[in-house]
Amino acid sequence: MIHVGVNGYGTIGKRVADAVAAQPDMTVSGVAKTRPNYEAETAVRRGYDLYAAIDDRADAFADAGLDVAGGLEELIEASDIVVDCCPSDIGAKNRPVYEDHGTPAIFQGGEGADIADVSFNARSNFEDARDADYVRVVSCNTTALSRVIAPLEEEYGIEKVRVTLVRRSGDPSETGRGPVNDVLPDPVSIPSHHGPDVNTIFPDVDIDTLALKAPTTLMHTHSLNVTLEAEPDEAAILDLLADESRIFTIPETADIDGAGKLKDYALDSGRPRGDLWENCVWAESVGMEGPDLYLFQNVHQESDVIPENIDAIRAMVTDVDAAASIERTNEALGVGLESLFDARGDREAVPIDD
Ligand code: NAD
User: Fold this and answer.
1) 124: CA distance to ligand 1 center in Å?
2) Gap between the Cα atoms of 93 and 46, Å rounded
């Protein structure tokens, strides 16, 4: 069993801990929190050993009635690997602590690429993280773009990628974020950081990205234009995407028009927290104009990076290969929403009597 510590138990950290607990070859050695809030209480109820991320706050946990097993140093000692899920830039401060213990660590996409030896996406560059001590799982947006770029690049070659990202302004629990009543170019200058971040996974792909921030919390929406080095038809593109285990091609018959229904579908399907680990690509949006591919996809920012963190652990501390790790992760979590639908995203509307 790989003993995995989780430092930072918020949106990403709590999902990583649950995903680790679901794996047959991993166990949660503990989770570190700064405050004894509701998330700390649920961590204890889920059976995770709780550690105080900041030593002099340990008393606050005792005052709140929550037992702690120790501080961050003790969590690192109890772990073969730590997944750092702290807010952006805190991971960089934590890295020397992991180094002092000789413990490998995974960082998240909010950190700069230079925090780690490797930026990681399981579908695209799993082997680059083999035996690495420090790995950064790229952001939710970069993860989703990598999952689409990898098969297109392999199958057809890519001349140019152009993406407009309409980003949710905050996660549902981030009550202080905005805008509340506006759509902001963010950043207003071009390109946004997302293109260069994709280049940490695909150094040779020519990509421009533009980003906006919208007053929603549920998901990001990407509008993609990929100029290919071939001219496949739409059915071939749909076949290619449908064969990707972490892409859900939304068929027309699903009657899903946006993030609200996607999340509702995830909840109806019994997904924990309504999580959608897969890119959600509208089959109807897939269009070819000569070599130019167009499509829309939605990305659940809170959860698409979770299976990637699990695969990064295996790349770093086991000899399991990419395909076996991805399959094991998918099976343990239940990744693969398309299983009941026509995975090819049939464009022919099925008549519905309603
Ligand atoms: P979050 O704020 O929801 O959770 C971070 C947790 O870390 C909080 O519980 C916070 O109290 C705790 N924390 C703060 N300082 C700490 C410290 N010194 N030691 C230990 N814990 C500390 O943040 P998040 O959304 O989970 O983001 C974590 C990382 O994941 C960031 O790099 C972020 O960019 C990245 N990420 C976030 C999303 C997303 O949509 N939320 C998606 C992909 C990647």
Assistant:
1) 24
2) 28
Range with the poorest average pLDDT among 14-23, 111-120, 336-345 = 336-345
Q: What does each C-alpha distance from 161 to 197, 260, 282, 295, 348 come to in angstroms?
A: 13, 28, 18, 12, 28
Q: What is the pLDDT of residues 8-32, one digit of tens each?
A: 999 999 999 999 999 999 999 999 9
Prediction pTM value:
0.96
Residues flanking ligand 1, CB < 6 Å: 7-13, 32, 34-35, 53, 85-88, 90, 108-111, 139-140, 171, 301-302, 305
Which residues are part of the catalytic machinery? 140
CA 100 to centroid of ligand 1, rounded, Å: 22
Closest alpha carbon to 313 in 110, 9, 25, 109: 25
Residue in the structure block whose two tokens are 């963190």: 309
Helix, strand or coil for residue 196? helix
CA of 329 to the centre of ligand 1 (A): 22
